[in-house]
Structures are given as C-alpha cells and as structure tokens.
Amino acid sequence: MDDRAPKPATAARIYDYYLGGIHNFPADREAARQGIAVYPFARAGAQANRAFLGRAVRTLAEAGVRQFLDLGSGLPTRGNVHEIAQAVAADARVVYVDIDPEAVAEGQQLLDGNPYATAIRADLREPRTVLDHPEVRRLLDPDAPTGLLMAAVLHFVPDDNQAYAVVEQFVGALRPGSYLVVSHAAAESFDPPTQRAYRQPTATPAASRTRAGVTRFFAGLELLEPGVVGLHEWHVEQDEQPPAQDTHGPGGWVGVARKP
User: Fold this and answer.
1) DSSP notation for 171-220
2) Strands, E, within 65-164: which ranges?
3) CA angle, 224 as apex, 175 and 243 as ends, to 5°?
4) pLDDT (tens digit, 9 = 90+) per residue, 223-248?
5) Hey, where are the domains in the chain?
6) pTM
7) Strand-strand pairing, 117-121 and 222-223
8) What is the dotted CATH code of the domain comprising 11-235+242-258?
C-alpha cells in the first residue's frame, strides 16, 4: 500500500495490522501501537479472536450449516470464513458485509471467480437493508439455516438499546436451526483509559461490555457448551498455545448459540 496516502486510521485496518496483514497505513499502525502501549495483549487478542471465528465456522459447517452472513467482516486475511466453510463443504455460501468501502473492494477482488461468496457494503445497524440486499437474497436461502457471524463488531455499536435491537432483528429473520456467533471486547479487561486510547486515534466509537452484557445477545437462544467464555476458552485445539494469563483478564467474551 502507498504509505504516502493520507489515510485516517480505521478499525478494519488496525485489526489487519494486529493480525500481521499488509492492508494498513501509517495512521493505522500508530493507532495500533497506542493500543498496545495501554493494552499489551491487543495483538494476541486479535489473533485469538480470529482463531475463535475459525473454530466456530468449522463447528457450524460440520453441523450442516451451508450459508454464512459475516457482519463487520473487515479486510481479507488468512483463514477467511469462505475458506474454512468451503473446506468442509465446497458449495458453502458466504456473504461478507462491511461498512468500509476498502474492505469490501478487497473482499470482492479476493472472491473474484468464487460463485459461492461475495462482499457487500452495508451498515449492520440497518438489518433490513442488509437482509434485502440483492446479493444476500441471491446467495442465502431464507428457508435454510444460517450462521450469523458478529465477530469483534458489536462493540462498535456502543448504544446498548441499538446493539441489542440489531441482534434481535437479525436473529428474528433467521429460520430455526440457525446460529449466532459473537465475540466482543470485555469490559472486565478494557478499563476507561484503554478505551480512550482506542477512541482518540480513530473516528469509530466503541464500548466494551461485561460477560452478562454479552450473554444478553443470546437471549432466547440455546448456547452451545461451554457458554459465554473468554477468548481462549471456546473449544481451543490442542495445537493452539493460549498466551500466559495476564492482568487484563479474558480480553473478550465469545459464544455460539442455536436458534430453537
């Protein structure tokens, strides 16, 4: 990427930097370094979140889910949802949704020639707009179970009323047998100084939530074991090496639930 371009920091590119990606600019790297200065395990947390998403998608695909709606998908990186799902079932369908036009453009380039996956630009705070999008209607069957993925995105909807309403509307539109996957910054880890360090270099508002607050997103759904747990506690595989326990607690809360 052209480092001379005067690009402001964005959440998608900061996350890309944490994951070791190349789709980031100086402002993103500086914002990421500021975050790491306050929260030293930010990079490890981002990588753990990506690993959780991969495990969750594989779990759902192995359970028979053949279509996924990935909200706030960010920039393409290693271990994308379509790669994991299509490794289980070649015809698994994925729609990536992001508000960042660059993330969507990168996604569309990556998916060129893949008939079962696409990326669209939309705001997850407008569920009906997302669900009525022509590409969503083309690829996802409303009468089939869907994996609704909201990984590391709901903390960018800081208003509680809006955040819970958005999840309720999306889940309400899915048929029984669908699943909700959530990962979310933990208020138990991100104290006010940490949150201010994130907000200052970016224009994206964010708010962490407690374990109880994240559990509330799964109201009316059947949580898969082990329930809402820390980033490194959801079906961690033997070859994964979770970081040593640190004073920042879980970093994030994660969970997967089925719509009865």
Assistant:
1) HHHSPTT-EEEEEEEBTTT--HHHHHHHHTTBS-----B-HHHHHGGGTT
2) 67-71, 93-98, 117-121, 147-151
3) 130
4) 999 999 999 899 987 555 555 444 45
5) 11-235+242-258
6) 0.86
7) unpaired
8) 3.40.50.150
